[in-house]
Design a protein that fits this description.
- By secondary structure, the protein is of the alpha/beta class.
- It has helices spanning 40-47, 70-76, 93-99, 104-108, 110-120, 122-126, 137-149, 167-182, 194-197, 218-223, 225-232; strands at residues 2-11, 14-24, 29-33, 55-60, 63-64, 78-81, 155-159, 186-191, 203-208, 211-217.
- The strands form 2 sheets. Strands 6-7-8-3-9-10 form a 6-stranded mixed β-sheet, with helices on both faces. A 4-stranded antiparallel β-sheet has the order 2-1-4-5, covered by helices on one side.
- Strand 9 (203-208) and strand 10 form a beta hairpin.
- The protein is globular, with a radius of gyration of 17 Å.
- The structure holds adenosine-5'-triphosphate and magnesium ion (MG).
- Magnesium ion binds next to helix 1.
């Protein structure tokens, strides 16, 4: 589904990613874990072509993404749920969801997908007419993920969906990710909440200062002494 090879990227003279390689197969949920500033957001942005890689190749669903812009990548079936949710705070829940289905192909399926998102997240259905800016943090995250699903993506990118949420809500966010997985969506998720994300994905990559430092089955990483010592604090 997604194959990233030899990717480096940065901002001006600053290099944020060095020779990154990763792959996500159809139906898998894969996490990129790592501390603050490791380059997790930069990695997702380079994958969805919000920033251009300096070297390397990105192949998505059989397409080489070289030269394509973010809108073209969206049209190929990738949805990027950005850091800090970025909802239209003054619009209602349903209006925000509508924004996720802006492409002509998605517009035709708007009602079916809306029903599906409301089935997946009944709370959003209850709040469909509420102004998004007045939702709780967890509900806003739900709305942001729902908006991502409205394009009917083959691959969903999630950038730290649990960030800034209270512990009890964090668990609800990971439950949402589980639900999305069980619907058969392919997911690439970036997280600092390492212990919890490793319980809901198949595999993970550890990113440190722009480089992949380890990778493996989620259960192996969860059991790894190095990772536990460095990141989980147990
Ligand atoms: N627009 C930008 N211009 C310059 N440097 C940037 C920009 N965005 C990010 N960086 C730098 O790139 C590095 C990686 O940042 P990035 O946001 O990708 O990390 P992250 O792992 O997502 O961090 P966090 O966990 O805080 O979200 C950091 O050193 C950051 O300061
Ligand atoms: Mg980030």
């Amino acid at each position: 589904m997604l194959r990233v090879e030899g990717v480096s990227a940065g901002y001006g003279s600053f290099q944020a990613l060095f020779d990154v390689a990763l792959a996500v197969e159809a139906g898998e949920a894969v996490a990129v874990i790592g501390p603050n500033g490791a380059g997790k957001t930069s990695l997702l942005r380079v994958v969805s072509k919000l920033i251009e890689p300096r070297t390397g190749t990105i192949d998505f669903d059989g397409h080489d993404l070289a030269g394509l812009g973010a809108d073209e990548v969206t049209a190929l079936g990738m949805a990027h749920v950005p850091e800090h949710r970025r909802l239209f705070a003054g619009l209602t829940v349903e209006e925000n969801l509508r924004m996720g289905a802006f492409l002509p192909a998605a517009r035709k399926q708007f009602s079916t997908r809306l029903e599906h998102v409301y089935e997946l997240f009944p709370r959003l259905a209850e709040r469909r007419d509420q102004i998004a800016g007045t939702l709780s943090g967890g509900e806003q995250q739900m709305c942001a993920i729902g908006r991502g699903l409205m394009s009917g993506p083959k691959l969903l990118l999630l950038d730290e969906p649990s960030a800034g949420l209270a512990p009890v809500i964090v668990q609800q966010v990971f439950d949402m990710v589980q639900r999305i997985r069980s619907e058969g969506f392919t997911v690439l998720i970036v997280e600092q909440n390492i212990q919890q994300v490793l319980r809901v994905v198949d595999r993970a990559y550890l990113l440190e200062v722009g480089r992949i430092k380890a990778s493996g089955a989620a259960s192996e990483l969860l059991a790894s002494d190095d990772i536990r010592r460095a990141y989980i604090g147990l």
